[in-house]
Queue: 2 jobs
Job 1
Amino acid sequence: MKSLNITAIIHEYQFDELSKSDQELVQQAMDITSHSYAPFSKFSVGAAALLDNGMIVTGTNQENAAYPSGICAERTTLFYANSQYPNQSVKTLAVAARTESGFIDMPIPPCGACRQVMLETEKRYKQPMRVLLYGKKAVYEIRSVGDLLPLSFDASAME
Ligand code: THU
């Protein structure tokens, strides 16, 4: 028997320690939570994607009475960015979330489906996509989606 040891690196910052451009991106993710449609969970999530051309695209979670028909903020944002600007890689994706009592203390961990979609974006543009996960007490920076999804499935498995 042998064990595979997979290491994931996550950098932790205070909001003030981020660069000004990262702060702006996180702020846009926070601001757009006000556009979330989350009448069922009351958990409002916002995401902001910085494209290679400098544009920022934002999106939110959109829920549905038929629960599985809803979609997370990360996928709303990436699918919109990839639809509108298919030739622009996504350099950084920032995510923020709040409950009815305010922004959450610790960063929101993206769901598995969103991690898989993030990975596809990274593979598609053949460059690492940074992910910034906001929490009031810490902001996590992941420098490549591979660190969020070890042992991941991608197109290379089908070759
Ligand atoms: N949600 C997101 O938008 N992003 C995540 O990373 C996790 C969860 C949404 C889905 C649903 O609308 C609500 O948060 C509660 O799960």
Note: The first strand starts at residue 11 and ends at 13.
Job 2
Amino acid sequence: MERFNGIAASRGVAIGKLHFFDNCQRPVQLARSDSPERELERFESARLRALKTLDDLHTQAVERVGPEDSMIFGVQQALLNDRDYISGVRDLINQEHYVAEYAVQRTGERLAQMISQLDNVYLQERSSDLLDISGRVVRQLNGELARDLSDIQGQVVLVAQDLLPSETVQLDQSKVQAFVTGGGSRTSHASILSRTMGIPAVVGLQEQLSQLRDGALVVVDGFQGVVIQDPDEATLEEYLGKQQSFLEYRRQLKRLKGAESRTLDGKKVVLCCNVNQPSEVRLVLENDGEGIGLYRSEMLCLEREEFPSEEVQFQAYREILEGMSSRRVVIRTMDLGADKKLPYLPLPAEQNPAMGCRGIRLSLQYPDYFKQQLRALLRASVYGKLAIIFPMISTLEEVREAKRLLWEVEAQLRSEGLRMERPVELGVMIETPAAALISDMLAREVDFFSIGTNDLTQYVMAADRNNSRIDSTLNDPCHPAVLRLVRIAAENARARGIWCGVCGESAADVRLTETFLRMGISELSVAPASILELRKHIRSIDLSAQPQRCPEPV
Ligand code: PEP
Ligand code: MG
């Protein structure tokens, strides 16, 4: 029995077999497939995607360093189209029935070895390019989560070095009992998604990940952030007990369905849910969410192979709004960039993506995509109670420009005779220190604020939210620096008479609930699975009594 300590990302206990998701950068294994046709298809589509990436890299490099120094990408494209290379891989798949990853790696190594021995310096140098392009294709193949999961028999505990939001959002929830990752923190998107799905997760295992074995039986303790490999009988029994009592606790909480989210002294709190997909409306209703406080619309892009058209977006927004009928749905315009990248829409590489072109910055740089989303939103507005929120705001001008584009789209829709519900509430996410500090000015522009404490914490503490080496004393929404900014935003909202909510993960942190309510926060938006527990806690708070000390005086 071995015990590994990581970060508790999502509560609950899972007992199951480990399944490695092949983005773990483990060496490619020799494996055979019973379907060479499928492997050939996988190879071809991964090769084409790798070619597309090289093409984009080439274009970017030409802009930055000029055509001469960018030639390498052209050469690599030629190698990926090389007949000997392609037939080498195909032969190994057809004749030896190797899986595509292994066939690609082996062909790359064989050809690289061959040309490194040639008596021609230029060709010798191409051997590293052959290894490079093979690595590229293997990475593309590893990105095929669907295939990887389609091999799963029954339920598993998924292990990955890191899960990208695009990968997490595609997981088949009926098969994944829990996640375990080497990287990540409590507020990385994989952790957030695991809480929405209500499955236990332990992240940040770092190097310990290499000691986990594919197929081994493990206990995942999402309360303590512990993974136990090869548990003995007594441990298994102990955890089966914990699993049962947690289920029982959740069952008891169900009694609070239909109850009010009101403090002992009568303050009503609006308790909403964060969702990532239209299908999660079911979870919101099951858990008695009073609305949707944050729909991360960019997830629509991450689960697809091409940018969702206006029609696809319209249908998704309509589904959510209709599903929630008269309850408010806050839809965030796409917060792409940083860790949410689109393989089919490569953006220029950035030195510091979290501080780069993400959220509203990206939307304003690509106004056609942004306007397409605004059209879909306004068209869907007749199907429910829509509110629109802009992410990653840091200047007044960004809000004004976003509103200008919204008005432009509205006028256009009117001229087309399309119906829409106007006005829809407009809000900004307060997730940069700048936004909090100018929240008095922002409050004049919008109808509400929602505080994204995940990013606010990352930016005010200069602590990468995705880095498991940043400890929780830095990545801490209870830090007074974060709370002071929350208070500033809440006070400025109140002064202007607009509502202010919190939709970062700290909204579900019961250590902070009383503090938030005393600051004037009137809405909390959390994962559906946290609603009833938070309601229970709110019902125990008495704001007329002496304040319970918040984590630190602010
Ligand atoms: C936040 O930053 O707190 C937030 C809710 O947005 P996201 O987690 O999607 O960045
Ligand atoms: Mg954010």
Note: The radius of gyration is 25 Å.
